Fold each of these.
Amino acid sequence: MEEKLFFYYTNDLHSHFENWPNIVGFFKEKIKRREQEKQSYWLLDNGDHVDRFHPITEASMGKTNVQLLNAAGYDIATIGNNEGITLDYPDLYQLYDQADFQVVCANLDSMIEANPTWLKPTHQFTSKSGIKIGVIGLTAPFNAFYHLLGWTVHPPLESLNQYIYELKEETDIVILLSHLGIFEDEQIAQYYPEIDVIIGGHTHHLIRDGERIRNTLLTAAGKHGKFAGEVILTWDHAQRRLVNSEAYTTEVDVTPTDEQTEHQLQEYYQQSLSQLNQPVTYIDQPIKANWFAETKMMKRLVATLKAWTTADVAMLNAGLILDGLPAGKVSYGDIHRICPHPINPCVVQLSGSELLEVIRASYTKTFQEYKLKGFGFRGEVIGRMVYDGIDIDLTSNGLEEQVREVRINDEPIQPDKTYSVATADMFTFGKLLPEISRATDKQFYMPEFLRDLLVSMFENQKF
């Protein structure tokens, strides 16, 4: 006799709640059918459900995300880097206290105290007919950030080796919730035939109909809840083994909306706006934002960053400020709205020649108009770089500005001298500014976001 097992999953929602009612509606339709046919099913989330760009998440520090997972009937989840490194230690430690589902992450540990009771390396559950399923979770090891917050993330393969073989012995089917990225998932599939299914995420890849590497089925549902995932496993009771595995993703904009979820989200949204409506300051005149100019607000924010970090130089891109502010009360919600990015301040050590290359690159039209997606940035384009502690003499070739001379402390920049440069941590990732991303000396400031400095600036300065 053969039996089908059904797993429905999400990954990398990033608090894009506009798609959540459709996801829940899709799952409810599937669950209704499973229950009618008396089949076993489970709901799983693969991390980065939380993203503090959204007011609902910001107001509750992610606890409302957990409530939404509870209401949808999730059974198991793992932790993504957005849960792990955008929340302060107490907020993450208590995040899942009220979860009705099990959280698994085999390579995350507290550096301060015993792990929270909700955190387990693996979890096992059993189908209606007695088939044993084991789930293990792994998250990306961003220890430069985790350590500053009081957590450590062990190398994923070391943790996998620690638990996978025993889990395989104790269960019939093994599923990995991997918030590591597609490259790591492919490597794991090559070398760990014990794993039957890898549900992937972190790199926001979409595998529409599953992909097989040796013994393992890989699947992933993209990002922002635009797709929902489904895994169907067929177990042969006579042979006592898995005889078939399938994976599919469904675009949720064509699925029915769950009205109850939509109504609940509207209530949560109004509650969040009320919670974030705390006054920070009052301003007599409107404050403008411009992604391609050195506005008063950006100049003061960059000056605040330089003073707060005591760096030699500070630089931030104007695209970080999404909108201006009208005259009158400025609330925390207003500041969250115009600067929603989960981005931390950092200081990197650069030689004068490296800093000069960064400055030159920042004035190119290609850089300023680049539509950045990811690295914590939740805006539209990078925009103009705004500096403090540095004088830049520019010329123009008619198409874009070019750097003619750079002076620091009234002296020409020294190519071999080392300068401390305060900026946004997003520039330490990828290839936006290679001189910064490959710098070996970086200091990250946690748990403060750039908007926390913006709040401080408004609290301490008159406009």
Amino acid sequence: MDDIDRESFSVLSQDSDAETDILEGDWTPDFQKNQKRMSFIKRIRKLCGKDDGMTKPLNVVIIGPAGVGKSAFINTVGAAFDGVCWREHSYSGSHGEAGGQITVFTTSYEKCCNAPKYPNDLLPTLIDVAGFHDQAGDEFVELLRIVFYGRLPVGESLAEAAKYYKDCGLEGLRTKYNRNNEKLKVDRVIFLSSATQLVPTNLISCVMEAARPSGIRDKKRTIPLYGVMTKYDKVIPQEEFEKLKEDTGNQSATIDVIGEEDYAKRERQFIEALGLGGSKHRFLRCSNYCDDVDKNNRRMETVIPDLDLPVLKFFTQVADPVMQVLNKGESYSKGIAPETVPVQDAAAKTQTPSQKDGTQVRGSRMGIVENFGETGVSVLLITIEAIFVAFFLSLLLKPQVDVNKVKVACQFMSDRKTPHAQAGMSDICKDVNGSDVWCGFTFYLALLILIIIRVASTLFTIKIFRRN
């Protein structure tokens, strides 16, 4: 107890926002690390703010190829925020030589795995998406955009979306996922790579194109990127690594460790591929809670501060609101190139072979409407409608007598200059002489007023519909 900083403990206990459930009997040599851990959590809580039921939390998607430890990383983040013990929020593990991946569906973990000590804080939501491979192509970029715009529902995997693309083409894919809401619209992208695996450069290039577009084809929504190199505990001295390779007959592919020098090259390549050069505050070397790190399963009873601190320090940058999503309000449909025409429901049985292999369908009724614009079509239809209505109004306002015959009579009486006839016909002739002008004027006035009212009401309705 004499070696403990009692003054620091006293100040910590008086802090209303700090954890105060530490008793003197609980003090351990890790006290200073625990104190630092709580300091990081306090900072993150302030950055995230309180959960008022109205503010949307930060949605953080965890991306990486199979085997890099996405699920283990999510569990590590959960343990760091929990501060009591490790829990398996995300099903993690390995099939070993059998291959394959554990996570198969999209899953979200609210408030950083629902840290029980902070129920009123709006901690980030972590999104784990299965189905990523180190591949490239426009179709894969589109799959990533579906994820980033929150269009991939929880419980569905990218493998399902990829199969839909194969069966129905790119526009069928866009049409289907454009119907979903954007609840899980991504605010941060954390890309994971393993220290013991090659850097997935193809997948990184696709992520960069989907998350940080150049503005081509109206894809302007730009999301902050972060990088995590997992399995840092597998990095060993280079001499030891070289000796291990010699002992195994230079079969480095079977070695689950990496030398320091080789790792430094791999880390540099990873940072450059993500564009994090000069921004290493958005990069983390991470060792996850796992059997290799915790051989005695201490994590079942307590946390390991040496694993928690780097993760929490990293999340002070992830949660910082100073990092903004550019064009945050842009929807998935606005990011689709305007010249493309969505096909009909891709699940229809009447698809032709050209539709199934991704060929765009043009000239359909939907294509004409989209190319012309729904507002232009509405105005055109309203104008036609107004012409017909105004025409019928003019018929209703038309006098019931033959105006031309009355004019002849008036002219005859005028030529005769009969005083009695003029006295009786003067008012009638006066009204008839202005009737043609009045009928033409009412027709065009009714037409103009009707068009203005209908166009204004329709545009207002379209605006309200789009806003909702």
Amino acid sequence: MSAEDTVTEARAKRALDVSGVDSGYGEAQVLHDLNLHLERGEIVCLIGPNGAGKSTVLKTIFGLLKPWEGSVTLDGKDITGTDPEDLVRMGVGYVPQVDNVFGSLTIDENLRMGGVARSSGIEEVISELYERFPILRDKREAKARTLSGGQRQVLAFARALVMEPDVLLIDEPSAGLAPSIVEDVFEDVQTVNELGTAILMVEQNAREGLAISDRGYVLDQGSVAYEDDADDLLDNPEVSQLYLGGADYE
């Protein structure tokens, strides 16, 4: 088997593979020759300074932005530039940082909206999600706008899970939350992962995000500056100094 065949086979076994991607907005390029991957069952955290292009990565994978160059594959299948509604049907979920629930709808209505593309089985899936996230079951008739920030984030996760995605893209799950709630939200991310969903997560709270992850990427100026196991990134003095706030952060 040639080296090229070996690489192709490895990519086919990955839940998600991003290769040589350039992307941006209008004429402004944000991502430069981006390469990253997500193995089945993993949590991978994408960290970096503001403006590094982290959210752009998720938007490009999810088809909200069309890559200028490069490719994105899902389980070895080319999904480059595929429309979001088609990606949802193919097993990719996305939880944006803002506007991730319908405030005027109840929890139950939000979950059903998350499953509009399902042809069957929605009752069973929603029932299982209520068992997994009892806070939603207990408030199922409450309007989403009445929920706390942490509860809204749980609802956003659950709504994305109604389609039973193999891959979930999460943008800044702890953004805007009180420190007392952040730990609970990260536990919910792990719960989602335990359901069998591989997660690519953008997180500004780098230490907390890496602490629950298998691997991590440090993005800087639209390119991968560092890639390693999450624990090794946390222990890397240069990464700590440049991106984690150094010793003063600890």
